[in-house]
């Protein structure tokens, strides 16, 4: 490397090689005849106050070779040569990952061949200079460790919604923490949109920004589902990091955990259904946090779970004679039954789309108000559900509203041949959606707050098999104008 060791001491280098003027490479000292070898240095305390190693640690000459523009800690932490996850270091000059820092390790060889000297242990967050193999201690490197592992104090979390201000990335672009892009690796926009929406739900966000909230949860040996919790927490902290080097985040590790934990039902390379992913992800997250179906609650159920009554009535076969139908309706089997059920989201059905074009040879795209399709849950509207053998009439009535409510508008219908998409436009207000009338009378008095404001809206564009998902997220930028403060909203 050509740098002379501060503090001198001939015994610190391997005898003849160092004396000959070649690069200062550490090698194992062989036993030599007495009198020819330099004496081993005494403990540093005897020579003075500072150890020579400490002086090198705090005065590394290679810090100016660090290239922050190539650093990307969003990808899986494995060696680019051995593909091992064990003892991985990031080269801070080229951004690549290598294993180990011993004499024959990939990181050591990389440092000698390309003269890249500054490395970061991705697990311990310690910096090292190779091939000299000493730890670097410098406060100027703290911003790199913060990007790798962002941390949030309770005060910082409590102020996230109070003082939203733009941050500046290393390349000069500005971004609003929490409102940053998620990279579409290939065909994972369906998952990106859902993850982005969930990251803007304040109670869920605040829970996962503080790792202490869930890191002590114990799972059975061999259980891989907790990986989902860890990766979601890491992604949440990266999305809300005010000191990012770039104004976008790659969800690579999060999506790898999704592929693994879903047993490849959801993939990066294949377009998926956003509603299916949302349903699976919320339930998997709840289970991984130690929740159960009935008794044990988690942050997921605290935020999203509501309850409803489902009234079900079995119908006679439509081809039966009227007299036989009337007789069957008297049986107990055909009487209406009621069950209490919980929900994480409400599925809204659209009216059937028109099949024929109008007189101008154009398809008319119908529009419906949100409250029209919400009538499904007013306790009176009945809808027929068909199975292979039997038909049922069902009606629904809400009994408890969650703090945050998810509506899933059912646009896709599947049959044996293809998938159809209903293009009906749903008109909805952005604020003050009041659902009091959909609650049963006895619980209306209990619910003091029944109005909702929109946080995020996920849209599917294009054909069912070829389309893509995008999301609108509501955020607030506060500006002081004269003596008052005005709230400007944008999506």
Account of the 3D structure:
- The protein is an alpha+beta fold.
- It has helices spanning 15-19, 44-47, 52-58, 106-114, 142-148, 154-158, 189-198, 202-209, 226-239, 252-261, 274-288, 299-304, 322-328, 370-373, 441-444; strands spanning 88-91, 97-99, 118-121, 127-129, 134-136, 167-168, 174-175, 181-182, 248-249, 306-315, 337-343, 346-349, 367-369, 383-386, 391-400, 407-410, 412-414, 419-421, 425-427, 433-434, 451-452, 456-461, 468-473, 475-481, 484-490.
- The strands form ten sheets. A five-stranded antiparallel sheet has the order 2-1-3-4-5.
- The protein is elongated, with a radius of gyration of 31 Å.
- The chain starts with 14 loop residues before the first helix and ends with a strand.
Report the total helices: 15
Shape: elongated
Determine the N-to-C terminus distance. 53 Å
Strand content: 15-25%
Q: What is the percent of helical residues? A: 10-25%
């Amino acid at each position: 490397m050509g740098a002379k060791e501060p503090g001198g001491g001939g015994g610190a280098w391997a005898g003849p090689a160092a004396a000959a003027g070649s690069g200062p490479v550490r090698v194992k000292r062989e036993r030599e005849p007495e009198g020819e070898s330099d004496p081993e240095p005494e403990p540093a305390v005897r020579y003075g106050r500072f150890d020579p190693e400490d002086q090198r640690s705090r005065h590394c000459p290679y810090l100016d070779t660090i290239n922050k523009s190539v650093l990307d800690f969003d990808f899986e932490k494995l060696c680019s040569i051995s593909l091992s996850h064990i003892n991985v270091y990031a080269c801070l000059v080229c951004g690549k990952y290598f294993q180990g820092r011993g004499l024959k390790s990939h990181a050591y060889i990389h440092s000698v061949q390309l003269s890249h000297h500054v490395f970061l242990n991705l697990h311990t967050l310690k910096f090292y200079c190779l091939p000299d193999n000493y730890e670097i201690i410098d406060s100027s490197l703290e911003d790199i460790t913060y990007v790798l592992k962002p941390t949030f104090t309770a005060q910082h979390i409590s102020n996230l919604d109070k003082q939203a201000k733009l941050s500046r990335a290393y390349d000069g672009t500005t971004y609003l923490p929490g409102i940053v892009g998620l990279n579409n690796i290939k065909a994972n926009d369906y998952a990106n949109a859902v993850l982005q929406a969930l990251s803007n739900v304040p109670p869920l966000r605040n829970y996962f920004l503080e790792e202490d909230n869930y890191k002590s949860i114990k799972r059975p040996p061999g259980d891989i589902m907790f990986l989902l919790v860890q990766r979601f927490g890491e992604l949440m902290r990266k999305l809300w990091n005010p000191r990012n080097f770039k104004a976008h985040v790659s969800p690579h590790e999060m999506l790898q955990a999704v592929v693994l934990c879903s047993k490849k039902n959801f993939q990066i390379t294949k377009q998926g259904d956003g509603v299916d992913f949302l349903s699976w992800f919320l339930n998997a997250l709840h289970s991984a946090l130690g929740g159960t179906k009935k008794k044990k609650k988690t942050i997921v159920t605290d935020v999203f779970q509501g309850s409803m009554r489902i009234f079900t009535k079995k119908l006679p076969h439509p081809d039966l004679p009227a007299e036989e139908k009337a007789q069957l309706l008297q049986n107990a089997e055909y009487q209406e039954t009621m069950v209490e059920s919980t929900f994480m989201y409400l599925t809204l059905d659209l009216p059937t789309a028109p099949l024929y074009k109008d007189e101008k040879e154009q398809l008319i795209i119908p529009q419906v108000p949100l409250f029209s399709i919400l009538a499904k849950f007013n306790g009176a509207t009945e809808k027929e559900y068909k199975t292979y053998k039997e038909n049922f009439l069902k009606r629904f009535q809400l009994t408890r509203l969650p703090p945050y409510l998810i509506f899933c508008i059912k646009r896709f219908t599947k049959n044996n041949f293809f998938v159809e998409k209903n293009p009906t436009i749903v008109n909805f207000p952005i604020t003050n959606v009041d659902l009091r009338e959909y609650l049963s009378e006895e619980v209306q008095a209990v619910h003091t707050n029944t109005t909702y404001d929109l946080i995020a809206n996920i849209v599917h564009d294009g054909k069912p098999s070829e389309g893509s998902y995008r999301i609108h997220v509501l955020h607030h930028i506060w500006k002081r104008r004269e003596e008052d403060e005005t709230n400007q909203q944008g999506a």
